Amino acid sequence: MKNKLYNLLIEASPHLKKEFVPSISIDCVVFGFHDTTLKVLLIKLHNSEAWGLPGGYLKKDEDLDKSANRILKERTGAKNIFLNQFKTYGKKNRSEFFFKDYPDDLWHKQRFISIAYYALIDYKTVTPIIDGISDGCEWKEISELPDLMMDHQQIFDEALLQLRRDLNYKPVGLNLLPEKFTMPELQKLYEIILDKKLNRGNFYRKMTRYGILEKLNETRKGGAHKAPDLYKFDLEKYNSALENGLQESW
Amino acid sequence: MKNKLYNLLIEASPHLKKEFVPSISIDCVVFGFHDTTLKVLLIKLHNSEAWGLPGGYLKKDEDLDKSANRILKERTGAKNIFLNQFKTYGKKNRSEFFFKDYPDDLWHKQRFISIAYYALIDYKTVTPIIDGISDGCEWKEISELPDLMMDHQQIFDEALLQLRRDLNYKPVGLNLLPEKFTMPELQKLYEIILDKKLNRGNFYRKMTRYGILEKLNETRKGGAHKAPDLYKFDLEKYNSALENGLQESW
Fold first, then answer.
1. Chain A: closest CA distance from residue B12 (Å)
2. Same domain, B137 and B69
């Protein structure tokens, strides 16, 4: 049991107790989209079989949202990512079991309530960095996830559900699609996030009603079919919808 | 400064430290609907001008969601209320200022990260109970809120926003309307929650598409106009929509 991870955690414990707020941890579900696949960023601790979500602790003098961004940057190299806080996990035995073979006064063995965030980014823009206590930091296809530690599978599942629900009142696509895109490309993004086919006519009508798209006087040439129209996001309306909800909402 | 509240808190502090998880608090935004008004349940601490949301702490051996229900019951008398966790508040100075005149080792003066829940109930079914450290526990009209302590105004505002967003994928109305109701009565409930008028035809079409209503072979008699049709919720479909989202969603 006294392997590399054990020694690193024992060594870090006194310092962690000084620097961080007790009982609070933060976990990040970072969804990465590119072309036609949706992935999630996972880390693997030394000497651990299971993968986990990148996470960390809240500094005593740090705002919660800033903390989440710092953790994501330190553990994965991902910067300037907008994180959506979506749920806090507080089952009484959610974190202790993982550290059952460690001394009782280990920082990591206390009861942690974990505040979870999700983000959706273009994974080509991030180069994962492996931190000191991990062997791996990788993008994994969401349809082929490895075993996840603690309650991280539940956190992942609920982040995905929240992302899907958020499609009902938040626009999505900026920074995920090229600046100019076709309606079928935008529909494909929705279909990949939702993991289901959407009706083309309904999608077109709903998207048009949202009023966040600007139709360009250009078409995408080179395909086998009739050249489809190109669109771009109207940034002002897109940002206003991010703030106030899509018009389709009640 | 050494008033009734001060003495009660100083006295309670050592016991609180033993029983509860440090740094974690819970706040509840309980919206109450009846007839045509939307209210929120507020408490007023002894010797405090400002009102606040009912809240409390997480016991060391208690699951988070159970804790929220226990707190609501203890502080307000409201039982068996389904609470929706919606956001966790963690600005670094959110809670300390309120207790600035108290000793540094007071339980209440530590940094608290607060996990917030909301619920929507028929306020006629709840009789508020005043707890030991409060002068008041009352339903207040949401359009006429008193000054709220700490960041409770922000928590309230965001709970209301979340309730409104949730109308896009969760059904609402069960236990708030009579068993048999008219479409205008259901529309009125939505309008009060959303604080805006809705188009009657659009509302009817959208509600019908949701597939959660059962039209009865009865009408509401006695009004000046043509007797409107009565509906009730199809419980199976209503509960399935609560679980899986409304059909209108993507």
1. 21
2. yes
Residue A173 lies in a domain: no
Q: Which residue out of A20, A26, A57, A88 would a mutagenesis test of the B interface target, given it has the greatest number of B Cβ atoms within 10 Å?
A: A88
Strand partners, A37: A34
Considering the domain architecture, whether residues A234 and A113 belong to the same structural domain is answered as no
- How far apart CA A150 and CA A114 sit, in angstroms, is 11
Pick from B22, B113, B250: CB nearest A194: B250
A118 shares its domain with A208: no
Task: State whether B194 and A63 contact (CB < 8 Å).
Answer: no
Q: Both ends of chain B: CA-CA distance in Å?
A: 56
Contact A61 B194 (CB under 8 A): no
pLDDT (tens, 9 = 90+) of chain B, 250 residues, equals 678 888 999 999 999 999 999 999 999 999 999 888 999 999 998 888 889 999 999 999 999 999 999 998 887 777 778 899 999 999 998 887 778 889 999 999 999 999 999 999 988 888 888 888 888 999 999 999 999 999 999 999 999 999 998 888 889 999 899 999 999 999 999 999 999 999 999 999 999 999 999 999 998 887 667 789 999 999 999 999 988 888 666 6
Q: Determine contact: A85 vs chain B, CB below 8 A.
A: yes
Nearest of A87, A176, A172 to residue B250 by alpha carbon: A172
Residue B209 identity: R
Q: Provide the domain count of chain B.
A: 2
Do residue A92 and residue B63 have CB atoms under 8 angstroms apart?
Answer: yes
Q: Which of B146, B84, B108, B129 is nearest to B24 (CA)?
A: B108
Q: List the domain range (segments joined by +) for residue A194.
A: 181-244
Q: Are B146 and B185 in a shared domain? A: no
Residue B149: give its domain's CATH number. 3.90.79.10
Q: Are residues B55 and B141 in the same domain?
A: yes
Cβ separation B168–A169 shorter than 8 A: yes
Q: In chain A, which residue ranges form alpha helices assigned H by DSSP?
A: 4-19, 64-76, 152-166, 183-194, 200-210, 235-244
Q: Are A45 and A102 in the same domain?
A: yes
CB < 8 Å to A243, chain B? none
